[in-house]
Amino acid sequence: MGPRTSSSYSCIGVKGGTGIPGTPVSVKIGFKSSGGDGAILLSRDPTERTRLKHIGVLKAHMKAHYKWMIETYGQIEAIGTDDLALIYGQDRTSDWAVAVSRDAARGAEVEFEVFGSGV
C-alpha cells in the first residue's frame, strides 16, 4: 500500500540506497503541492480506511444550521464556514508519518525519510 494524499499533492519520486550490512536502509519519498490545503499519510504497515456515508447531507446540514451553532455555542474569533474542516474518514495503522498543509504555495515540496531494518 502506497502513500495516501489529498488531491493537492503528487508523488515526485522515490530515492533509496542500500547501507552497510547491519545498518538501517533509508528511502526518501518526495511530494509536490499544487497549492492550497492538503495532507499526506505515509504508512509502513497495512492501513484500514473507514469513511462516513452521505457526506453531502452532513455538509448541507452544517451549512444550513451554522448560524444556530454560533448562537448556541458562541463564535470564536469570527470563524466562517470556509474555516471549518469536516473530518469524514479515518485511516488506522500501527506505524505512520503525516504532513498537513494550509494554504501551501504551488510547487512546495515535502520529503519523508523512511528507515527499514538493515540488510
UniProtKB/TrEMBL annotation:
It comes from the Eukaryota. This is Uncharacterized protein. It comes from Kalmanozyma brasiliensis (strain GHG001).
